[in-house]
Amino acid sequence: MTPTTPVTPTTPMTPFDHRMTVFTTDEEFLAAALPFLTEALAAPGEPSPVAIAAPANLDLLRDALGGDAKSVGLVPHTEWYTGSAANAIAQGAGYLAAHAGPGGRIHLLMEPVWGGRAGRTPRETAEWIRYEALANLLFAPLATTALCAYDTRVAGHAIIAAARRAHPDTGVYEDPARLAAELDAVPLPPPPADAERLPGPAASADVVRGWAVAHGLSAADAELFATAVTEAAGALGPLDGALLWGEAPACVCELRAGRRVDDPLAGFVPPLSAELEPGQGLWFARQVCAYVDVRDEGEGAGVRLQYG
User: pTM (2 decimals)?
Assistant: First the structure.
């Protein structure tokens, strides 16, 4: 935590330093980014900082840093943020495991991509805010310093206002679990009347695969979708039923579980190895699918997987 971070009852006291900056001009971007990277370069024993940003902003940094540019990793944000919010978590976790110093020490300047999936619809915006909120829990043990940079020219004011609630240094920070629960309180559209019910109590990979091919997915995509469904079903335990609907690429499966999924981090915690352990099927599903929506209802839960 920096000395200027306001201390509130919900401010997390962890090594993870999760900051936010908002800019409207190139000059404002540099005014926030350069001191952050200078701080990183002066941190003793810390690996080189990384700036993940729009290509034009990387050019600004390259020119402004001069000779110091060779000591900063410069990554186009379109190469980092390549899919869902869960993919971004996996990318961050993998990079920290491979490149961060002891205890996760490294500085990351991170500018989200708003011209792609994130922010394109209210649903996509909600998933991004979930990512920002849950990062406070997922990376809490690590001494990583992250500065999330939001450009008002591409991210609207509503998005920025929501993102402030996910950053501890803004003064309007919300508890991550409470913010995730608020996002999950928004009801999902009901399944269509022509949704097909999967036969039997378990999700059959063969049935899902055949249905997906018949509804327009390629054989490879159908295999991934079927595996995501069966892995998620295995993590949820006995099912009360499953429905399939949609056409490629937006093929959907909704699993009805007999137990609740109370953990807001379910499916977001990276596995310790490349091999999935029992109960980690939701992680695989979140990596493969564009959306995995969990809604607890009474003693059970509905888990909706949308492939594309």
Answer: 0.88
